[in-house]
Design brief:
Layout lengths: L7 E3 L5 H12 L18 H13 L3 H11 L1 E6 L2 E8 L7 E6 L13 H5 L12 E6 L17 H14 L5 E5 L2 H16 L3 E6 L8 H5 L3 H17 L1 H8 L1 H10 L1 H15 L9 H4 L2 H12 L4 H14 L11 E9 L9 H7 E9 L7 H4 L1 H13 L3
Parallel strand pairs: 4-5, 4-6, 6-7, 7-8, 8-9
Antiparallel strand pairs: 1-2, 2-3, 3-5
Helix pairs in contact: 1-2, 5-6, 9-10, 9-14, 10-11, 10-14, 11-13
Length: 393
């Protein structure tokens, strides 16, 4: 497949036969026995997953979500040999600035569903006209309805180059970028690319800072920073099995996630359970998200059969290093806004951030929320995004 400059409108219309097959699989699930503990220490609880699957098979309406995605304006274009799927939601406000939003795992373009309105039509959502953005929201390579790489090499740095090419193709010469999780690393890679090649990126906002404290920083950590380090240690020791699996053997887990919708749902539900919300809310999925929101996210892996290809992004990233650009020796020089979510296990202090981001224009320890920041706390994160880029007009 050769690159062209063509941007093609994309209308989602999942065949009914695919939805019927999914329901058949859900109703034929072979269940494990109940966990032997009274908490989530062995993973998602049987009764919780069974309730989600019952809702999925009997009450969930995919066509509602399909219509929502189509209403935003979906497109595809081929960049570096790969078909990229993206939402392009233009604001009606004169002078709106372009903003590229990049999701993570196990997320999708639907991570931003509650922020699209406030970001494109701020006056209708408590903002000022100058807070308006044109939104470009791509699906990561191998995720959602983007193409699946057939060779190695499609890591986060290559993805950043593709995103920069996408913005050029859409005619944007002066733009912002935002991301969390894998999207935070892609966004930081874009910032590094701006420093070396001037791609038109005017500033970034992150809701996750994926740099590692140095040994000296760890030795001289304040009590709050020590708490951050302990939280990170707990995550790696107790909660990161999914990451270790996908970083080393994505194809192995890919067979199960591709064949079993319940296996896929439990794999993703575990993340909503373990890292969703503030620390005191971890585990209470149904209090933080609707079942439809969780299932919508699962569907963007199930319908395009992208669970295995998405998992390979972890394998790629493990080979190039997980830390995003921005070292003490070579800090990012573009303006940066940073939101620290209280429930995120990868938290960083302001003084650590100031050493990585030479122009830290906004730093906020958000009152509530966890890993799925813009899905959980859209009002708080939209306020931070506005505050960051308001300084850069």
């Amino acid at each position: 497949m050769h690159d062209t400059t063509t941007v093609t409108p994309f209308t989602l219309d999942v065949p009914q036969a695919d939805l019927d097959d999914l329901r058949r699989r859900l109703l034929a699930t072979r269940w494990p026995e109940r966990e032997t503990v009274e908490d989530t220490s062995q993973g998602p609880r049987l009764e919780k997953v069974q309730a989600l699957v019952d809702h999925w098979a009997t009450a969930y309406d995919w066509r509602r979500t399909e219509g929502l995605l189509n209403s935003w304006g979906q497109h595809t274009t081929t960049i570096d040999g790969l078909e990229v799927h993206f939402l392009h939601v233009r604001s009606a406000v004169p002078g709106a600035r372009p903003l590229l939003l990049t999701h993570g795992w196990p997320g999708s373009v639907l991570e931003f569903r509650h922020a699209i309105g406030p970001l494109t039509d701020p006056v209708a959502h408590g903002g000022a006209p100058e807070d308006a953005f044109h939104l470009v929201i791509p699906s990561l390579p191998g995720f959602g309805f983007s193409g699946k790489p057939t060779t190695t090499g499609w890591g986060l740095a290559r993805t950043a180059r593709a995103w920069a090419a996408l913005m050029v193709r859409l005619g944007y010469e002066d733009w912002f970028a935002q991301g969390g999780d894998l999207g935070a690393t892609v966004t930081a890679e874009l910032a590094a690319l701006q420093a070396s090649e001037d791609i038109g990126l005017a500033g970034i906002h992150l809701n996750m800072a994926l740099f590692q404290p140095t040994d000296d920083e760890a030795r001289n950590a304040t009590s709050e920073e020590q708490s951050m380090l302990r939280e990170g240690g707990y995550y790696w020791q107790v909660l990161s099995a999914y990451s270790q699996q996908m970083s080393t053997r994505p194809q192995t887990i890919g067979y199960a996630l591709t064949d079993s919708p319940v296996g896929l749902a439990a794999w993703i539900y575990a993340m909503f359970q373990d890292v969703g919300g503030s620390h005191d809310e971890h585990g209470d999925v149904e209090a933080l998200f609707t079942l439809d929101e969780v299932i919508d996210d699962v569907m963007l892996y199930w319908l395009p059969n992208s669970a295995a290809s998405a998992a390979r992004m972890y394998w790629e990233s493990a080979r190039t290093g997980w830390a995003s650009p921005g070292t003490i020796e070579e800090p990012l020089t573009v303006p940066v806004g940073l939101s620290i979510m209280p429930g995120e296990y990868v938290r960083r202090s302001r003084r650590w951030a100031e050493r990585r981001y030479a122009d830290l224009v906004h730093f906020n320890e958000v009152a509530r929320g966890g890993h799925f920041a813009l899905l959980e706390q859209p009002e708080l994160l939209v306020a931070d995004i506005r505050a960051t880029f308001r300084r850069l007009r």
